[in-house]
Amino acid sequence: MVFxxxxxxxxxxxxxxxxxxxxxFYLTGIEQPNTILLLSGDNEEGDVLFLEEPxxxxxVWEGEKLTSDKASELSAIxxxxxxxxxxxxxxxxxxxxxxxxxxxxxxxxxSLTPSKTVRYYKSLKEKFPFHSVKSxxxxxxxxxxxxxxxxxxLIRHAIHVTGEAxxxxxxxxxxxxxxxxxxxxxxxxxxxxxTNGHAYDPIVASGLNACTLHYIKNNAKMKSGELLLMDFxxxxxxxxxxxxxxxxxxxxxxxRQRELYQAVLDVMDKAIEALIPGRTVAEVNRQxxxxxxxxxxxxxxYTKFDLEARGKALWKSYFPHGVSHFIGLDVHDCGTKNQxxxxxxxxxxxxxLYIPEEETGIRIEDDILIGHxxxxxxxxxxxxxxxxxxxxxx
Length: 394
Known about the structure:
Blueprint: E1 2-3, E2 9-11, E3 14-15, H1 22-28, E4 36-38, E5 48-51, H2 56-62, H3 68-75, E6 80-82, H4 86-93, E7 99-102, H5 116-127, E8 132-135, H6 137-145, H7 149-170, H8 179-192, E9 197-198, E10 203-206, E11 227-232, E12 234-236, E13 239-240, E14 243-248, H9 255-273, H10 281-298, H11 304-310, H12 312-315, E15 346-349, E16 352-355, E17 360-363, E18 366-369, E19 376-377, H13 386-393
Parallel strand pairs: 5-6, 7-8
Antiparallel strand pairs: 1-4, 2-3, 4-5, 9-12, 10-11, 11-14, 12-13, 15-18, 16-17, 18-19
Helix pairs in contact: 7-8, 9-10
């Protein structure tokens, strides 16, 4: 049994924009709430997709919902029933079936808002205590990790729109503007290009703000001499992109900023080459961290003696995050750091350098497709060298 996401209350009688459970969307293509997928394997009664039946009131206030024919066309499931019949159908199935599979997380947390899957799992354990329960989460992760050609094309398009938005925003950056004005340009470009909007809360962080990894206030006035870190990405048909670029607010890197920026870019180039089949994210992280530590010492942030004395606590203060994560239907997609890379997987590559005492944060991030022999940088067309960025801003 796989469940759609809930509508999440915002305030009063308003809800946040609906975003489908990624695994449910992956299996069905359905983006409607209050929907359930029942897969029965070789059972003669077959698979069923349960849809909410529209009422006269919902048609007036919310508009049309999926018809059975349209839902069947999207999901390739022929047997479509009303969600109201779910418990009745399930009770009949349980007379023959003794094992039930859910897409359960590896750990069941005590969240104040447990998912519909977790709620139904707990309810089922009370009503049918002698049925066996298994999780198919690992199976769904395995399916979603390597992208089909159609999925790769959707991500390519999300990256293309992200790149176009970056070009528009970069040309507007100047001292005195507010970070929110740059965010607005990105949001506008995502909207007019018919995407779902931002794949995650965008980060538009100038000066010291860039040293806060998930800074999303985006409301400070940008000053000459500062760097502006932008971490953003469009979501297209539920598939994410994830790009970071760092630019000089006044259009020209200072001598020190050039040194710092080039250090990050040098590590990034080597880290991208390391994303090949058979490696793991953990291995690439360790390797990239070693390269960054060498750069830290070259840049005079600390000495080898300091490093021997303080170790991880020292270098991690300048690079507190990993260099890569999986990308797909979720911007931080399923997959672990110890997963061996295979062709068709898409990951970020995002080394960074954060120096609060210099009020400077730099992160450069591209989206990388694992190939059979060498990786393909899907976002290679988005300017990122110092010369490209200064030329763009001129």
